[in-house]
Amino acid sequence: MDKSVVRTEEAPAPFQGAPYNQAIVAGGFVFVAGQLGLRPGDTEISGDVARQTEQALANLAAILEAAGSSMENLVKTSVFLSDLGDFQGMNEVYAAKVGDRPPARSTFEVSRLPSGALVEIEAIAHL
């Protein structure tokens, strides 16, 4: 199976030059690396969980578009929260962005996220 790398300037580059890509297209699917609430070109994450979720989903949408897909084609997401108490704030923004046919989703509380982020979202979408 062939795979191709997806890269867009409309979303942050891999975190601190780490060895991964924003996304990979393979087998008719787009596999998007975890996205933080970091604006392209910024070096620091700020805002509450709602604001960070909004930006993480904007990054995700930009990457999906660059791959030839869209938020409507999401089939699975994983949401990582540094505090599960932020679930409601994240979920309100998330629900507004994933449409009326949301993907399957897992949500986890993790002990820490890069740069002190409150949320990180990774995804799989079809082309």
Which tags fit this structure?
60s Ribosomal Protein L30, Chain: A; 2 helices; alpha+beta; 24% helix; single chain; 127 residues; six-stranded mixed β-sheet
Q: Which second-level CATH architecture applies?
A: 2-Layer Sandwich
CATH homologous superfamily grouping:
RutC-like
Secondary-structure-based class equals alpha+beta
Please estimate the helix content.
10-25%
Q: Return the string of H and E elements.
A: EEEHEHEE
Strand order of the largest sheet: 1-2-3-6-4-5
Which radius of gyration do the C-alpha atoms yield?
14 Å
Any idea what the shape is? globular
Mean of all residue-level pLDDT scores: 96
CATH topology: 60s Ribosomal Protein L30, Chain: A
H/I helix tally = 2
Most strands sheet: 6 strands, mixed
Q: Uncertain regions: pLDDT < 50 for 5+ in a row?
A: none
Percent strand equals 25-35%
DSSP summary, beta strand count: 6
CATH class: Alpha Beta
The end-to-end distance, rounded to whole angstroms, is 15 Å
What's the domain count? Answer: 1
